Amino acid sequence: MKSSEEDGAGTLSIGALAARFGLATHVLRHWEAMGLLRPGRDAGGRRRYGADDLTRVATILILKEAGLDLSTIRTLSATADRATRHEILRPAAEELRSRIAAAQASLELIEGGLNCEYEDVTHCPNYRRLIAERTSSHTSPPPPLPVVLRVRVGGG
């Protein structure tokens, strides 16, 4: 690395840290503006990121991949209280369980289409069962069919 990217103290420039994680430098600046990062500064006022910052960026990315938004990550990182952490994470866990269930239903639908021996998928028993479930009388409107079904059945 060039000396401007890593100094003798083992800190990284904003460009080097961004490159390490495949991010644009403006992302790190945004996270800093939100209070998620607090880089040190060198004598010239340039940001310098150390080992703790590396861990922090990795943590932010992992939490984003888990579906948390930056505001939630900031709130979560500001607390060490277990009860507060649970209060923050419980709705996120429920949302994720819901998305997993929807993805599982979509996968089952697709696999049913792959295993269907009929030329027209609308004749498959699994498809007919799904339609019957959706069209049976409900007191509230049924949830929409998975996006995959609407796209595949519609004509193409």
From TrEMBL:
Keywords recorded for this protein, A-Z: DNA-binding, Repressor, Transcription, Transcription regulation
InterPro entries assigned: DNA-bd_dom_put_sf (IPR009061), MerR-type_HTH_dom (IPR000551), MerR_fam (IPR047057)
UniProt keyword annotation of ATP-binding present: no
SUPFAM superfamilies associated with the record: Putative DNA-binding domain
Domain HTH merR-type: 11-79
Keyword rRNA processing recorded: no
Alphabetical list of SMART domains matching this protein: HTH_MERR (SM00422)
Domain of life: Bacteria
Protein name: MerR family transcriptional regulator
